[in-house]
Design goal:
With 187 residues, the protein is of the alpha/beta class. The protein contains five helices and ten strands.
């Protein structure tokens, strides 16, 4: 059975975007891009809601531009090659290597978890919150960025019941970011 992993950057005070809806308070460096590429390399499927997919669809447009840092190009190549499922009732179409799903998130993700292949990665607080409330997430991975945002969208909005976790891994970065990996404790 494949694991479902929630991976996302957040501020030290727990926000993934500021009050203005932007994520301009942390600029990922080469080390961070390489780390994220390594995280999703070999992933079976990347899962997105509409808003996060629209943000990440930028990576569809990156080509082998010699002016761009190699770490950024490597992340783009890994992202482009990885299959994606986008959950949305409003999008009309999605890009290459993507499949659009309009309903029944629970059944779709449960079936994907039972399939063979690489782990599933969800990115985006809205979809992740839905999956957390359904107890489908197996690991939480957060890149805690060296910034205090003071408000905005939280890492896991709308989850009210406690989710007990076991720390599996930590890693510090030269940028001051800290990676935290937790496994869900299920009795």
């Amino acid at each position: 059975m494949r694991k479902l992993i929630y991976l996302l950057n957040m501020s030290l005070d727990g926000f993934v975007e500021g009050r203005d809806g932007k994520f301009d308070w942390f600029e990922p460096d080469d080390e961070t891009h390489r780390f994220h590429a390594e995280q999703i390399r070999g992933a079976g499927v990347l899962l997105y809601g509409r808003r996060m997919y629209e943000t990440m669809s930028y990576w569809h447009t990156i080509d082998d531009d010699a002016a761009l840092p190699e770490a950024l190009l490597e992340f783009a190549r890994v992202w482009q090659a990885t299959p994606k499922v986008v959950f949305s009732t409003t999008l009309e179409q999605v890009g290459d290597t993507c499949r659009l799903v309009r309903d029944n998130v629970e059944a779709e993700v449960t079936t994907m978890k039972e399939d063979d292949g690489g782990d599933l990665f969800v990115s985006g607080p809205g979809l992740a919150s839905t999956l957390a409330r359904l107890d489908l997430i197996d690991e939480y991975r957060a890149m805690v960025c060296p910034a205090l945002v003071g408000g905005g969208k939280s890492y896991l909005p709308g989850v009210e019941d406690p989710i007990l976790l076991n720390l599996v891994e930590t890693r510090g970065f030269e940028s001051g970011a800290l990676y935290l990996r937790y496994r869900v404790s299920r009795g």
